[in-house]
Amino acid sequence: MSTDRPTVDPRGPRFGAGITAVLLLVVIGLFLSGLGAAAFVLFVVITAVFAWGTIAGIQRHPYGLLFKRVIRPRLAPPTELEDATPPTFAQGVGLFVTLVGVILFLLGVTLALPIAAGFAFIAAFLNSVFGYCLGCQIYLLLVRAGILGRGTAARA
């Protein structure tokens, strides 16, 4: 199967999801400990990392680059590569969830921060532990519904 779409080692996004899950737990812990300002700052950083992955693509995501340069050389080659489009779309879903949390928090809805962090944590946890990417599944549903197109990848 030949496509012009970039591919990624599927272990990379799972690695990044693990880092994200841990950081989101720290956000929730800080918030519950009464350190809302620190939780907010870390949550904004996580949101910026989601934006980076959404705009630059999963191949240039900071956690993906860390995986590619430090972790992957120590592992056996991947048995298969996957299309980078669904995980990049998933970064956009993460950006949406966290950005809504940031905006609502700034508007005075303080509980929006841990709630958004909780939803994002669930998605990151599912991806990192079980390899189930909710954002990727949303992408595939939108493709099947004809809302998003996959171009040549759909025909391959």
UniProtKB/TrEMBL annotation:
Positions of the DUF4395 domain: 8-144
Keywords in alphabetical order: Membrane, Transmembrane, Transmembrane helix
KW Transmembrane helix (keyword) present: yes
Domain of life of the source: Bacteria
InterPro entries: DUF4395
Entry keyword annotation includes GTP-binding: no
One Pfam match: DUF4395
Transmembrane segments: 12-32, 38-58, 93-113, 119-142
Record protein name field: DUF4395 domain-containing protein
